[in-house]
Design brief:
Layout (H helix, E strand, L loop, with lengths): L7 E2 L10 E2 L11 E9 L7 H17 L8 H6 L10 E9 L4 E8 L6 E2 L12 E10 L4 E13 L2 E15 L6 E4 L19 H7 L7 E5 L7 E9 L8 E8 L10 E9 L4 E11 L6 E3 L1 H11 L2 E2 L6 E3 L1 H5 L4 E5 L2 E5 L21 E2 L2 E3 L10 E3 L1 H4 L2 E6 L4 E6 L9
Parallel strand pairs: 1-7, 5-10, 6-9, 15-23, 16-22
Antiparallel strand pairs: 2-13, 3-4, 3-12, 4-5, 4-8, 6-10, 7-8, 8-9, 11-12, 11-24, 13-25, 14-15, 14-19, 16-23, 17-18, 18-21, 19-20, 24-25
Length: 417
């Protein structure tokens, strides 16, 4: 047994959107490392996507608002795990090697946290490079948790071999099925307080940069919408953006200064609907997060969106539903970042119809992927742009310059859903 320790929540790379419409600081593809990732839908034991994501959102919010305190009480933590469900509702996973020779683990890609840990499904294999640090670790994810110990070990990401990487080795895990752990890609400051020693643990991206394996401390995320349960069609780019994954320029914006979103890939944005620019969400702070499935907006903004679309809430699925006629007239959402606007088409706003039955829906219905965050505007975390948003754009977290980038891709206007 090990002592209960300060918690680490899933924290998203803090970055906010200001308009700098230039190419990425690292535009030479040869300067970076690419890693293929697998998109999959795994609903084992999950009562609803909404419940799992809201549990995560609550943890993100509560953890950030208590950021100055390095310890969260057991009572607080218990209140932040309301759903008896796995947290990998719909995710992207990467095969990551640990040890020498490496054992490969399927780790969930998370820009909402900074620690890398394993041991959920597949147990950790000690090799000659495994060095126990002695510190305990504790992680809460809203709908999952893990307890274990700190090690340093060799980590293999694609062709890159990182030495002395801090990792967590879980001994007790709840809420993680079908995945071996987490690959945390957020800012390293969020690792403070995750161990009993309280030290900051550099992320895999930070260590690749400091060890000269990549030329910039950044990661590009290329997710791809799909209508099948599992497909290896995404890619992470470390150290340089991958110019083959986007068109035009990347729009960069700085990290928001608004708490608690400033602790994550926090950005400032507003949202309007349709050609008439119907206001949906006034300019405010929120986060982009690979660990959340849907697009979440503040409750009052959600009411405005529901009114604009005419959708009704489907109690069985938890999502807004449109008739075929309503979908035919559904207009685009427009996400405004600084002086730049990105269009989120009608097709992008709906759940992939071939996967309706996977979430408990019927085959002929049209479900919207914009959902109620559960709190009104003005909380400092008023939206979450999750995976279904990121699949339509190329996304960059640039830790060197403390900024986030977005660019148009071939998937932005795809009619796949």
């Amino acid at each position: 047994m090990f002592a209960r320790l300060p918690l680490l929540a899933l924290c998203a790379c803090a970055a906010s959107l200001v308009s700098l419409s230039s190419a990425s600081p690292m535009s030479r593809r040869s300067a970076g490392l690419t890693l293929s990732v697998t998109r999959r839908l795994n609903l084992t034991g999950v009562p609803s996507i909404i419940e799992a994501d809201r549990a995560r959102a609550k943890m993100l919010f509560e953890r950030a608002t208590a950021q100055n305190a390095t310890v969260m009480s057991a009572k607080q933590a218990a209140g932040l795990v309301p759903v008896d469900a796995t947290n990998q509702v719909y995710n992207y996973i990467a095969s990551v090697g640990v040890g020498s020779p490496p054992t490969y683990y399927n780790l969930l890609i998370d820009t909402g946290s900074s620690n890398t840990w394993l041991g959920a499904d597949k147990p950790y294999v000690n090799t000659s490079t495994s060095v126990p640090v002695g510190d305990g670790r504790e992680y809460f994810y809203g709908s999952g948790l893990a307890f274990g110990y700190e090690y340093t070990d060799t980590v293999t990401l694609g062709d890159a071999v990182i030495t002395g990487q801090g990792i967590g080795v879980a001994k007790t895990v709840w809420g993680f099925e079908g995945v071996d752990g987490i690959l945390g890609l957020g800012p390293e400051i969020l690792t403070k307080g995750s161990t009993s020693g309280g030290e900051i643990i550099p992320t895999v991206t930070d260590n690749m940069f400091s060890q000269g394996l990549i030329e910039a401390d950044l990661v590009g995320v290329a997710f791809v919408p799909s209508t099948v349960l599992e497909s290896t069609n995404g890619q992470l780019s470390f150290g340089a953006v991958d110019e083959s994954k986007y068109t035009g320029d990347i729009t960069y914006v700085p990290v928001t200064s608004t708490s608690p979103s400033s602790n994550y890939v926090g950005i400032d944005q507003s949202i309007t609907y349709g050609s008439s620019n119907i206001p949906i969400l006034a300019t405010t702070a929120g986060i982009t997060d690979t660990g959340s499935t849907l697009v979440y907006i503040a409750t009052d903004a959600f009411a405005a969106y529901q009114k604009a679309t005419g959708a009704v809430l489907d109690d069985d699925v938890g999502l807004l539903k449109l008739t075929a006629k309503q979908f035919a007239s559904l207009q685009s959402l427009f996400f405004h970042f600084g002086d730049h606007t990105f269009e989120f088409t009608a097709n992008a706003q709906i759940w992939p119809r071939p996967l309706n039955t996977a979430i408990g829906g019927d085959t002929d219905s049209v479900y919207l992927i914009v959902a109620d965050l559960g709190s009104n505007w003005g909380e400092g975390m008023d939206f979450i742009n999750g995976m279904t948003f990121l699949e339509r754009f190329y996304h960059v977290y640039d830790a060197d310059n403390y900024q986030v980038g977005f660019a148009i891709t071939e998937n932005t206007f795809a009619e796949i859903n």
